[in-house]
């Protein structure tokens, strides 16, 4: 009880913008010492969410945050790339008035960034960019295309003996009879800035991330259920022992599903293909090489790089599927990898100007934020941006 009272005091000081640097450091120490304390802090923040905030002294609080960040830079290895923790309390978003940068003890009060969304960005933005939304393009067996963003709920097409229905921001394939004709294939594509869900004819559910493509038959009639993916998707596969589910990934890997939930990241502009198993079991093998397959267990990840498979025995599963849950997870992510994620979600062209530092980040933020809010938060890493017309984001030192 005494510790909760102290937490309440420190949190009140934080929210009222009266906390000293020592009190900020004390609050961070309490959070890091006990994982349950973080839940207590979150509960206190939630209770304080509706409370009116006092007058905000932006200069004072930015000065405090900058001093904390400066004190936290790694001293043992001065040549190493800087590391910044960006843990945005996504449950309340920017309206919570707090950005917790856990591990660095940096607190940026961001409630006011919505009033001044790019106040710390180098230069001025010509436009803002809204976050991605639901949408995709469906290519039918005859080559015709349907833009699902503008299509209303209801029957989209009849493909063989399968009805294609748009419902609740997702596409559903429903067989309604025996189809003895040749198998027809559909392709669903999510451009940058869009994501979508598909319910396949066997009941398998697929979440497609931005910039992805999934090809699949409108009915699974053969000895196996085979689909192909480029980009990123999360699969919840309906088990059917007599007809295994197989996924071809960028024509390089084959994933045979022995269980249910897994994520595949296979963008062409990423160095590797990563398969992360959430539950069940899958078997991963190379498509064109005679090598032994890898059987995965939940919590494991298999990466394909330089034509080799590498098993990562214990991974942070939540990081792999954060996008599906409406989050960016930047645990150990470098600046350029982060920018590729933002490029896909906000439909941007990202270019680099000058000698941009090799910065690494840790933390989360909501995918529902406007781009200007995201960039305002990233300014704490001393990397600057300029957003130009045509959705061109210039990253500067």
Describe the structure.
The chain is an alpha+beta fold and 397 residues long. It has 2 domains: 56-128 and 331-396, 3-Layer(bab) Sandwich (Phage tail protein beta-alpha-beta fold); 133-320, Jelly Rolls, CATH 2.60.120. Helices cover 20% and strands 34% of the residues. It is built from 7 helices and 30 strands. The strands form 5 sheets. The protein has a 19-stranded mixed sheet that branches. It has a 3-stranded mixed sheet with strand order 1-27-25. A hairpin with a 2-residue loop joins strand 9 and strand 10 (170-175). Helix 1 (2-15) crosses helix 2 (21-33) and helix 1 (2-15) crosses helix 3. The two termini are 47 Å apart.
Mean pLDDT: 77
Query: What percent strand?
Result: 25-35%
Task: Give the overall shape.
Answer: globular
Characterize the biggest β-sheet: 19 strands, mixed
CATH class of the largest domain: Mainly Beta
Taking all Cα atoms into account, the compactness measure Rg is: 24 Å
Q: Detail the poorly predicted runs.
A: 52-79, 87-126
Structural class of the secondary structure composition? alpha+beta
Helix content: 10-25%
Number of DSSP E strands = 30
How many separate domains?
2
The number of helical elements comes to: 7
CATH architecture of the largest domain: Sandwich
What's the end-to-end separation, in Å? 47 Å
Examine the coordinates and then state which fold CATH places here, giving the name of the CATH topology of the largest domain.
Jelly Rolls
């Amino acid at each position: 009880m005494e510790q909760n009272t102290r937490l309440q005091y420190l949190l009140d000081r934080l929210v009222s913008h009266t906390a000293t640097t020592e009190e900020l450091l004390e609050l961070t120490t309490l959070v890091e010492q006990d994982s349950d304390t973080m839940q207590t802090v979150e509960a206190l923040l939630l209770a304080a969410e509706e409370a009116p905030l006092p007058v905000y002294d932006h200069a004072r609080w930015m000065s405090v945050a900058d001093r904390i960040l400066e004190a936290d830079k790694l001293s043992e290895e001065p040549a190493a790339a800087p590391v910044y923790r960006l843990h945005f309390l996504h449950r309340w978003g920017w309206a919570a008035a707090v950005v917790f940068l856990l591990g660095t003890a940096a607190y940026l009060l961001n409630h006011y960034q919505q009033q001044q969304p790019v106040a710390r960005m180098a230069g001025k933005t010509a436009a803002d960019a809204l976050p991605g939304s639901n949408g995709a393009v469906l290519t039918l067996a005859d080559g015709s295309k349907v833009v699902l963003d503008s299509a209303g709920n209801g029957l989209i097409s009849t493909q063989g003996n399968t009805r294609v229905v748009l419902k609740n921001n997702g596409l559903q394939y429903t067989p309604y009879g025996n189809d003895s004709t040749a198998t027809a294939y559909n392709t669903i594509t999510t451009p940058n800035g869009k994501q979508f869900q598909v319910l396949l004819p066997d009941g398998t559910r697929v979440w497609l991330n931005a910039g992805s493509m999934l090809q699949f038959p409108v009915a699974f009639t053969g000895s196996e259920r085979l689909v192909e993916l480029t980009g990123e998707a999360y699969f919840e596969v309906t088990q059917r022992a007599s007809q295994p589910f197989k996924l071809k990934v960028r024509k390089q890997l084959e994933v045979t599903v022995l269980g249910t939930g897994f994520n595949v990241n296979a963008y062409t502009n990423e160095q590797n293909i990563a398969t992360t198993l959430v539950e069940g079991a899958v078997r991963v093998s190379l498509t064109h090489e005679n090598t032994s397959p890898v059987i995965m267990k939940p919590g494991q990840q298999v990466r394909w790089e330089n034509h080799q498979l590498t098993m990562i025995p214990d991974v942070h599963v939540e990081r792999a599927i954060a996008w599906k849950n409406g989050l960016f997870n930047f645990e150990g992510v470098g600046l350029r990898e982060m920018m590729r994620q933002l490029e896909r979600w906000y439909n941007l062209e990202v270019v680099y100007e000058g000698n941009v530092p090799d910065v690494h980040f840790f933390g989360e933020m909501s995918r529902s934020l406007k781009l200007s809010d995201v960039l305002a938060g990233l300014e704490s890493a001393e990397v600057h941006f300029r957003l130009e017309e045509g959705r061109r984001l210039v990253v500067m030192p």
